[in-house]
Write a structure and sequence with these properties.
heterodimer, A: 112 residues, 5-stranded antiparallel sheet, 11 strands, B: 114 residues, 4-stranded antiparallel sheet, 50% strand
Chain lengths: 112, 114
């Protein structure tokens, strides 16, 4: 059974720092991995999707990497800003129906 | 940019009542989903729907739950007889190609069962 774990659970950094969020999964047979952002009481905003054949994806200040064989992904945020404060969720898709299995998230606070 | 829309944003109901949560997926998407998030817990998969039928469902999605695409645009989740433990945020999502393309989520319906 696929399990997704995110470390750390919470992170507080000063504005301008570069940071890395970690995600691990137990079953390497995945279709893809998706990173989301969730603001308090809101929906999930898709940030990046990495296909299982890819090693990384970039969007603006965000870079996500995938090492399928070791069951790990990282989300790198460059030059963090207070507006980046949110919960970041990692989710893997293990079937062609698109069923996502989520981690518990990392809650990021960027202090001005 | 096209988005998934959900109504209502907040629903309060009494235990034992039926509720219907509504969603309008992105128009050219073919796969539709319901997820839920109990306060403080992980987002959990409930059901996926493709080609007018359920393609996968979780253990949570028992006989109290049903989904329907009554017309070309809406996708609904019905809970037949709500329980206190059904209180959660319910998210609708859609994707173009199932597991091969990103899922896009709505802002959710917060269901409170009293």
């Amino acid at each position: 059974k696929q399990e997704v774990t995110q470390i750390p659970a919470a992170l507080s950094v000063p504005e301008g720092e570069n940071l890395v969020l970690n995600c691990s999964f137990t079953d390497s047979a995945i279709y893809n991995l998706q990173w989301f952002r969730q603001d308090p009481g809101k929906g999930l905003t898709s940030l990046l999707l990495i296909q299982s054949s890819q090693r990384e994806q970039t969007s603006g200040r965000l870079n996500a990497s995938l090492d399928k064989s070791s069951g790990r992904s990282t989300l790198y945020i460059a030059a963090s800003q207070p507006g980046d404060s949110a919960t970041y969720l990692c989710a893997v898709i293990s079937s062609n129906t698109g069923k996502l299995i989520f981690g518990q998230g990392t809650t990021l606070q960027v202090k001005p | 940019e096209p988005e998934v829309t959900q109504t209502p944003s907040h629903q309060v109901t009494q235990m034992g009542q039926e509720v219907i949560l509504r969603c309008v997926p992105i128009s050219n998407h073919l796969y539709f989903y319901w997820y839920r998030q109990i306060l403080g817990q992980k987002v959990e998969f409930l059901v996926s729907f493709y080609n007018n039928e359920i393609s996968e469902k979780s253990e949570i999605f028992d006989d109290q739950f049903s989904v329907e695409r009554p017309d070309g645009s809406n996708f609904t989740l019905k809970i037949r007889s709500t329980k206190l433990e059904d209180s959660a945020m319910y998210f609708c999502a859609s994707s173009r190609q199932g597991g091969y393309s990103p899922l896009h989520f709505g802002n959710g319906t917060r269901l409170t069962v009293t």
